[in-house]
Amino acid sequence: MRVVDLTVNVLGPLATMILGDLGAEVIKIETPLGDPNRQTGPSRHPNMSAMHMNINRSKRSVTLDLKRPAALEALFDLVATADVFVHSMRPSAARRLGIGHDRIADRNPRIVYAFAPGYMPGGSRANDPAFDDVLQGESGIADLMLKSVGRARYLPTVMVDKFCGHALASAVGMALFARERTGLGQEVCVPMFETLVAFNLQEHLWGAAFDPPLGSGIGYVRLLSEHRRPYETQDSFICVLAVNDEQWKRLLPAIGRPELVDDERFRTVTARTRHIDTLYGVVAEQMKLKTTAEWHVLLDAIDIPNGTMARFDDLLRDPYLNETGFIRRYEHPTEGAMVTTQVATQFSATPAMPGLPPPTLGQHNHEVFRSLGYTDEKIAEVTGTKPTAVRRLDEVPASPL
């Protein structure tokens, strides 16, 4: 499968990286200045920042200034050879540039045309700009923080972009499957706001799933408890979770509170949910009485799920993650020694594997456009590069990750 990728920042590049890791040939189309994320984070060389390296492996990079007619025509030549076209523009901007669905489908009726705007097409906000922080607020994530810890804030991760990136990659896969069955290409849209609202309401719709609402209404009370967090021990933090009746019957005596097993407040799921803040508070106090290692031994013996709270710095040294090869170290052709992660999803017959290392800007101009029959002069015209000044890394066989 060939993917023509006109995405920038995080959401789109993550989606296309997933497709590339799973075996697609991804051609990343960039302006001569490159994806802005090439400048985000530490780097050894210009245009090769940490953010770019982490979400743009398994791709080729070519440069096109799509405001120039020759470059736009070159894009359409690529589209004619592609299975998937992905962009991260607002619908109106894509149409103004001449790459709306109708124009792309005219060149290739079987293509899957995918994009992830901020809001649902056809609505009054269809062309509003949207970024992760704004959508964390609008979708209710910041309110969850306010309800649970008393302070409105964003999660310290670009959750909206990353979740919607995975959703976009999945949607493209489903559209390709449909095309295999029907022969038809189609337009695929993953609106970020609606996708996150649905994501948040899966559990937090709660009593508001009924009309009129039942119980406490909206908000899954267990998840909003201020004590739902890693428990402080004598020497660090531990994560513990009991869910069903049998687990609580084992856990409460183990932490030194056997009398609570028959407490009416904690005997059933319904009762525990109603009094979950009190119950979690009890567990939090008891966890302070032993070290994390002591709790691991005790909780493992009674089959209660538990784990040490990891610090980010610990993850790269984690013995298990290194044992399984999930933390991967490799040599990049221009950037030297690098660290990345393996693909987590496992396929027994078609194993996924990160392919090409993250590309330098325009690294594959000649490789890609020569495959379309372009001369060096034509390549220079459409890519905005000089024939004598092109970095010819594409002529050196790239070592896979």
Write a brief caption for the model.
The protein is an alpha/beta fold and about 400 residues long. The chain has helices at about 10-20, 50-55, 70-80, 90-95, 100-105, 130-140, 140-150, 160-180, 190-205, 245-255, 270-275, 275-285, 290-300, 310-315, 320-325, 365-370, 375-385; strands at about 1-5, 25-30, 60-65, 85, 110-115, 185-190, 230, 235-240, 305-310, 325-330, 335-340.
Supply the helix-strand structural class: alpha/beta
The number of helical elements comes to: 17
Query: Largest beta sheet, briefly?
Result: 6 strands, parallel
| H/E element order | EHEHEHEHHEHHHEHEEHHHHEHHEEHH
CATH-derived topology of the largest domain: Rossmann fold
Low-confidence stretches: 388-398
Q: Identify the strand order in the major beta sheet.
A: 3-2-1-4-5-6
Tell me the fraction of residues in β-strands, as a range: 5-15%
Number of domains: 2
Helicity level: 25-40%
CATH class of the largest domain: Alpha Beta
What can you tell me about this protein's structure?
The structure is a single chain. It contains 17 helices and 11 strands. The radius of gyration is 25 Å and the shape is elongated. The relative contact order is 0.13. With 401 residues, it is of the alpha/beta class. The protein folds into 2 domains: 2-197 and 344-395, Rossmann fold; 231-308, formyl-coa transferase, domain 3 (2-Layer Sandwich). Strand 10 (327-332) and strand 11 (336-341) form a beta hairpin. The longest helix is centred in the middle third of the chain and has 24 residues, at 159-182.
